Amino acid sequence: MAPMKAAAMKAAAGKKAMTKSDMLAKISETCEVKKSVCSKMLASLCEIGTQQVKSTGVFTVPGLCRIKTRMKPATKAGKREMFGKMVVVKAKPAKTVVKAFAVAALKNSI
């Protein structure tokens, strides 16, 4: 089973992720608008998403993903056992973490 996984990983490694300019070109082609208009629309979507995540903590791009914030609690200083060794750990303050989750429609389509 391991050789099959390695072959699949190599096949996926050959493919590259779509760049912003490629995405804008594809959107402008399908919607029949200029690239500059698509760029403004994408920038507007990013701005709206940022505002919503800051204010409500949740933002959904329908059919694609849901972006959420989560409070990560503070950790106390002390000694912890990691991999069989005692390690001194510093205290860390609480912080807000941003996470993105695939929407069910995207999961079902793959």
Shape: elongated
Q: Strand portion, in percent?
A: 25-35%
| Whole-angstrom Rg | 21 Å
Overall strand count: 5
Q: What is the arithmetic mean of pLDDT?
A: 87
- Helical residue percent band: 40-55%
Main beta-sheet strand count, sense and barrel state: 3 strands, antiparallel
Low-confidence stretches: none
Structural class: alpha+beta
User: What's the order of the H and E elements?
Assistant: HHHEEEEEH
User: What's the N-to-C terminus distance?
Assistant: 22 Å
Report strand order across the widest sheet: 1-2-5
Number of helices: 4
Q: Would you kindly provide a written description of the structure presented here, covering whatever features stand out?
A:
With 110 residues, this protein is of the alpha+beta class. The chain is 47% helix and 27% strand. It has 4 helices and 5 strands. The chain has helices at 2-14, 20-31, 35-55, 104-109; strands at 58-61, 65-72, 78-82, 85-89, 95-102. The strands form 2 sheets. It has a 3-stranded antiparallel β-sheet with strand order 1-2-5. Strands 3-4 form a two-stranded antiparallel ribbon. Strand 1 and strand 2 (65-72) form a beta hairpin. The radius of gyration is 21 Å and the shape is elongated. The mean pLDDT is 87.
